[in-house]
Amino acid sequence: MKSKSKVLISIFIATLISTSCSVDKGEFIYPLWDGAEWMDDYYIAGKLDEQTYAISEPKVNWYYNTSYLILGKDKALLFDTGHGKDGKNIMSVVNRLTDLPVITMYSHFHLDHIANIEKQDDVWMIDLPYLRNRVKDNKLKLTKSETLLFGSPTITVSKWIKSNEVIDLGNRKIQVLNLPGHTTESIVLVDKKYKQVFTGDFFYDSQLDYVDLHHDTQASILIKSAEKVVDKYNDSYVFNGAHGFPRQSYSTLKKYLSFLKSYDDKTLDSKISLTSIGFQTVYEKDGMRMATPTYGGSITNQLIINVILGAIILILAIVFARKIMKDKTLKHNNGYK
Asked: Domain 30-270 sits in which CATH superfamily?
């Protein structure tokens, strides 16, 4: 009976894992961009210019996280530490690319951007009152809601940076902007000299789905943030997002803004797809897609419901299997009477 239960458990887990988050969009193949190379069996890295590296995690299912190492003369700035699947640490790559002291900043607090966040030595944080009010002895404890049930890691904050403040890395200045919409604490980094905007999950490669988390993501606020970026910058800039390919274009950004407006106006057709995190309602226009939780009210609630439903299904399957085995045993015993 124990072996039967193990088989049922294995089938249940395998079913969850094998379901793609974008099953209807087809498999997304993540090639190397020009100049990128494998750094080990997990990370790839490539130069966007002589002072900027993109570091990606092409093997992480549907995340395809891309973090950025921005080099100045005196310091380097690491924007996100990625997903870090199976204990991988992006610093193993960063330390091969630069000998400069490294500042770490986070585009936001979701689990796929904050790997090893507690181990980072010099974390600079966007200065928002609701974050400041939670700090004690320079320690900021994140909530499970902020990390999407990942846990509640504690960050040691070295310095607070206000929105619009400029960080001088030494002959390279990076402006920090708080652009809420995806999350309240979401930031983007702007390098006016090199014409680059590092956008986190505010805007990224449209070959991947955008996600409306409901409980934190607000399309109307995201639209206002997108309008600010569209108005402030132009097609001389490139936009480096936290998922998929770097170097997204200004024209794609404008297309994204139009897509967000249609999504917010509820003028897009939708369909429901089964994904690895449950049923998602998917909205699509001009090759761009927005995936939202079909039930639960938020992706966090949906994940909790999935765990509860999964446990119930597993228990019922075990009870059913035991009943079958019991009936077979009774039938077998009766055959000898």
From this structure: Ribonuclease Z/Hydroxyacylglutathione hydrolase-like (3.60.15.10)
What is d(CA 104, CA 184) in angstroms, rounded to the nearest whole number? 19
What are the extents of the domains in the chain?
Answer: 30-270
* Structure confidence by residue, pLDDT tens digits, 184-205: 999 999 999 999 999 999 999 9
- Please state, in angstroms and rounded to a whole number, the distance separating the CA atoms of residues 61 and 123: 27
Q: Which residue has the tokens 């630069």?
A: 98
Largest CA distance in the chain: 92
Per-residue model confidence as pLDDT tens digits over 203-230: 999 888 888 766 667 788 999 999 999 9
Task: Name the residue among 281, 321, 333 with its Cα closest to residue 4.
Answer: 321
What CA–CA distance (Å, rounded) separates 322 from 309?
20
Query: What's the token pair of residue 322?
Result: 């035991």
Task: Yes or no: say if 167 and 160 are a contact pair by the CB < 8 Å rule.
Answer: no
Query: What's this model's pTM, rounded to 2 decimal places?
Result: 0.81
221 SS3 class = helix
